[in-house]
Amino acid sequence: MIALVAFFAVAFAALKFANDVWWMIVMGAALVLFMAMAVMALASLGAQRAFACGVVVCMAIYGSVIYLSGHKELVPQGERRLPTTRLLSTIFTVAHAEKQPGVSTTEFSGAYADRPMIGYGYGDYGGYGDGGYGMPFGESRSWLPGEAFMAIGHVLWTIVLGLAGGVFAVFVYARRCTDGNASN
Asked: What confidence tens digit (pLDDT) does each residue in 143-177 have?
């Protein structure tokens, strides 16, 4: 239970402050999890092997789908074909609706009220325009706005779907064991 709470705490922090550093942390954790489960799939037996195989297969499938879709699934305003991309895009739009300093989205109405504002951060403190203040800590702009959020979100989805696949694999294994057909 503590691991679940810690996972969600790191996930929310990574999404709130999405940048290349958080992407490396989350991607590194996903890579370590994938490699550990791959080794367990080869070296363990029984329910542990089933769990590890489920995690590895589901992480590999979702990761492949994201990789093969190209750049389309990493832009929040782009074409959204996957349900996870649509969910992440909605979360990004809601979470960053009023993030722009000095501008309130409630001042706008009509057809443009629900669209994210163009040029976020480019002339502000720490943006591309610099404003003479430089880049503050945690405000890396090597990604386009929203791109890091989407990349981190998809890595988190890869982990969640992998763990769900592992739980499902254990369920299938346990059902097979109760039928008397269990073989490692």
From this structure: 556 788 888 999 999 999 999 999 999 999 999 88
Whole-model pTM: value is 0.69
Tell me whether residue 168 is in a domain. yes
Determine, yes or no, domain membership for 45: yes
- Count of domains forming the chain: 1
What gap in Å lies between CA 160 and CA 2, rounded to an integer? Answer: 16
What is the distance between the alpha carbons of residues 56 and 97, in angstroms, rounded to a whole number? 36
For the chain, the distance separating the N- and C-terminal CA atoms, rounded to the nearest angstrom, is 29
Tokens standing for residue 155: 């890595």
CA dist 98 → 63, 84, 88, 117 (Å)? 31, 23, 17, 10
66 falls within a domain? yes
The whole-angstrom separation of Cα 106 and Cα 113 is: 8
> Quick check: is 102 in a domain?
no
**What is the residue range of 169's domain?**
2-97+122-178
> Can you give the pLDDT at residue 35?
96
